[in-house]
Amino acid sequence: MSSSTFKTKPARQRTLHGAGLGLRRALLGPLADQLPEQISFLEVAPDNWINVGGRYGKKLAELLEHYPLICHGLSLSLGGPAPLDEEFLRQTRAFIAKHDARVYSEHLSYCSDGGHLYNLMPIPFTEDAIHYVVGRIKHVQDILEQRIAIENISYYAAPAQEMDEIDFINAVLEEADCDLLLDINNIYVNSINHSYNAEKFLLALPAERVTHCHIAGHLKYAEDLRVDTHASPVIDPVWDLAAVAYKNFGALPTLLERDFNVPPLEVLLEEIDHIIELQAPYAVKTPVAAERRAAS
After folding, report:
1. Which CATH code of 3.30.420.240, 3.20.20.150, 3.40.630.30, 3.40.640.10 fits the domain covering 3-295?
2. Domain residue ranges of the chain, discontinuous segments joined by +
3. pTM of the predicted model as reported, rounded to 2 decimal places
């Protein structure tokens, strides 16, 4: 199957709207008890849920009767040196189909080399790396039989850098003809750590490829060093950057990530409410990516 198929294949991404929440197992019970109306979709990592049955599998299935699902991969290692795990990809395709997941996304990074590194490593910003990772993205799309979205990652070193991060990301998106999961917090973190203008970077991304956003908290080690942790509340400058994204790209569906120090659901819902508040002035403006898909 040629990757050109995915230009015209009907896309379910356009059915997303509003604010979503990353599903952690500790939240299964509270979510099932409350079924909060302000949550419009849930996200899981298929890596953590494939072949999970029993009470956890049952609780997930029950929640997905109420909320649409999107999938965010953790271990595909798009930029890694080892061959892609095709059996895992086939299992992922089955998981996506079983739960009618609207989007599948992965990190523009690598995380394995003969074993998992348990961290997201930066791909060198080079022409050779562009062609290498593009070939792997196309292969993933062929196996999954759908477009995928790649996420801009946070990174703390840029080995063998030949070009700016924004040029690297845009070249991969164009050559692979894939979509973009826009991580707002990662743009802010990188802008501090690598001394660039976050708003300028954001506006240089191709709006027509953005499927949805991630937003999260991070740790401030120093004035010039931030670490993406997903372990704290979102800070004001990141909220401000989200507002810029909505103003320019429309009310993009946005998912709140909280992986560590997970507070009670009520606290997370306060941040969900803030996402909705920021989206509201631009809710009548259809996100550009959704317009493109609706016309396909």
Report:
1. 3.20.20.150
2. 3-295
3. 0.90
